């Protein structure tokens, strides 16, 4: 079986985001690819240079696993607060946090590297082009409103259509 032809016949739109680290974490880099399928979107994530896990005895601000989301705006400018220009989580249906269309699983890293593939049916690829992907310093608790208490934004990438 020719898998390339098989998968390309199921895939429609494709988008990607090149991830770059903040001034605090300049070694972070990676790629997120979004593949539209008949039933949803397959998301491929490959990132390196993430900070090592550091527990917090009070569980207030551990470093990692990393909150990971689509944010409203495709702006990865760094001002005083890294990547705040990306806005809040992508949430077109005004759901409480944990159910935002842009809420993704946390990124677990090993020696600074994270790889993950997952499926979502919360959006279509064409809906997220021009938005951004953000990696946070802390884990997302999926409960705190409005955005999960994930801490500093440490990496960002603008989502672009793959031509």
From TrEMBL:
The keyword RNA-binding does not apply. Residues 29-159 form the Superoxide dismutase copper/zinc binding domain. It is an enzyme of class 1 (oxidoreductase). It holds the Pfam family Sod_Cu. Keywords: Copper, Metal-binding, Oxidoreductase, Zinc. Its cofactor is Cu cation; Zn(2+). Gene3D superfamilies: Superoxide dismutase, copper/zinc binding domain. Binds 1 copper ion per subunit. Binds 1 zinc ion per subunit. Transmembrane segments: none annotated. One of its GO terms (molecular function) is superoxide dismutase activity. Its EC number is 1.15.1.1. It catalyses: 2 superoxide + 2 H(+) = H2O2 + O2. Destroys radicals which are normally produced within the cells and which are toxic to biological systems. May play a role in favoring mycobacterial survival in phagocytes. Belongs to the Cu-Zn superoxide dismutase family. This is Superoxide dismutase [Cu-Zn].
